[in-house]
């Protein structure tokens, strides 16, 4: 297991994840980041510049594992809805 931190960045503002989550690997970290992003996008009370927002995922050694822009998650969800209609 590896400890992954899911920091949220919106423009110049960074919200640091101080606790992290134990996961089996980078694929699980990507899945978790996508879930966190989808949850934020679905929350109508959260307002930010989605085009400039992303989750930055780091491992327990503070090495960047991935960056997931919320715009990419939003676009993917839009394509999925379009296919369903």
List keywords for this structure.
85 residues, alpha+beta, five-stranded antiparallel beta sheet, 5 strands, 38% helix, globular
Describe this protein's structure.
- There is one protein chain.
- This protein has 85 residues and is α+β, with helices and mostly antiparallel strands.
- 38% of the residues lie in helices and 33% in strands.
- The chain contains 2 helices and 5 strands; from the N terminus they run E-E-E-H-E-E-H.
- The protein has helices spanning 26-42, 70-84; strands at residues 2-10, 13-15, 21-23, 53-59, 64-69.
- Strands 1, 2, 3, 4 and 5 form a 5-stranded antiparallel sheet that branches.
- A hairpin with a 2-residue loop joins strand 1 and strand 2.
- Helix 1 (26-42) crosses helix 2 (70-84).
- The longest helix is centred in the middle third of the chain and has 17 residues, at 26-42.
- The protein is globular and about 35 Å long.
- 14% of the residues are buried.
Task: State the gist of this model.
The radius of gyration is 13 Å and the shape is globular. The chain is built from 2 helices and 5 strands.
Unreliable stretches, pLDDT < 50, 5 or more residues? none
* Largest sheet entry: 5 strands, antiparallel
Distance between the termini: 40 Å
Number of DSSP E strands:
5
- What does the overall shape look like? globular
Structure class: alpha+beta
* Rg, Å, rounded: 13 Å
Number of helices: 2
Q: Taking all residues together, what is the mean pLDDT?
A: 88
Helix content: 25-40%
The H-and-E topology, N to C, reads as EEEHEEH
Report strand %.
25-35%
């Amino acid at each position: 297991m590896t400890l992954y931190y899911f920091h949220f960045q919106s423009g110049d503002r960074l919200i640091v994840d101080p606790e992290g989550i134990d996961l089996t690997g980078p694929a699980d970290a990507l899945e978790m980041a996508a879930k966190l992003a989808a949850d934020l996008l679905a929350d109508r009370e959260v307002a930010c510049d989605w085009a400039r927002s992303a989750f930055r995922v780091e491992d327990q050694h503070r090495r960047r594992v991935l960056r997931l822009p919320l715009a990419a998650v939003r676009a993917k969800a839009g394509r999925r809805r379009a296919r369903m209609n």
